[in-house]
Amino acid sequence: MKKIGIFASGTGTNFEALASSDQIKSLANIKIMVCDKTGAKVIKRAEDKNIKTFVFNPKDYANKLAYEKEILEKVKDLDYIFLAGYMRILSKDFLEKYKGKVVNIHPSLLPKYKGIESIKRAYEAGEEYIGVTIHYVNEEIDGGEILAQDKFKVDYNKSLDEVEGQVHDLEHRLYIKTAAEILKGEK
User: Fold this and answer.
1) What is the CATH number of domain 2-107+131-150+175-184?
2) What digits encode the pLDDT tens for the residues 61-115?
3) Is 6 helix (H, G, I), strand (E, B) or coil?
4) What angle do CA 84, 117, 71 make, to 5 degrees?
């Protein structure tokens, strides 16, 4: 059984999808959920599933090195880390310790629309297709090796909120499928 951690910063819908998946539960133990925002909804989701949490406020530390040192101590025995809406950039040192073991989900068809507000930017640009990408994390923002992508044709009769809902549904399905493949050694 693999040992994994999930890092999140917000509502935790991708966390919930992974943590609730019977397929993921059959392959891995979620040992910890790490969150950088006190009061984020993902904290309650993790607590409801009896998953250990580490919640920190970056402002309580002298610098990134200091809080990442504490995180690394908490996750030192993990096989993989899955980012699920974690809005902090991991340092080079952190990534070197977990090279090829940190996976992210991004709501665009990378390499297009890296960074924040990806769905909104793709929608406003009138893209024919909008989708999601799962990739390994490297030092470049949303620039690591792509593991999986999926997309749908945008219906511009739908509002941005409706399209965002479609993207999130797609994220949940694709993240579970790809995480399972990673945990089985297929990716």
Assistant:
1) 3.40.50.170
2) 999 999 999 999 999 999 999 999 999 999 999 999 999 999 999 999 999 999 9
3) strand
4) 30
String of DSSP letters for 95-146: HHHTTT-EEEEESS-TTSS-SSSHHHHHHHTT-SEEEEEEEE--SSTT-S-E
Q: Is 89 annotated as a binding residue?
A: yes
Is 147 part of any known ligand binding site?
no
Is 104 assigned to a binding site?
yes
135 is catalytic: no
Domain definitions of the chain by residue range: 2-107+131-150+175-184
Q: What is the rounded distance in angstroms from the CA atom of residue 146 to the CA atom of residue 136?
A: 7
**Pairing relationship of beta strands 129-136 and 146-153 according to DSSP bridges:** antiparallel
Question: What number of helices (H) and strands (E) belong to the chain?
Answer: 7, 7
Residue 73, classed as helix, strand or coil, is helix
Residue corresponding to tokens 């409801």 = 48
DSSP structure class, residue 57: -
Measure the CA–CA gap between 55 and 7, rounded to whole angstroms.
Answer: 10
Out of 106, 135, 168, 172, pick the active-site residue.
106
Pairing of strands 53-55, 2-8: unpaired
87 is in an annotated binding site: yes
Q: Kindly state the tokens that stand for 115.
A: 């960074």
135 in Cβ contact with 144 (< 8 Å): yes
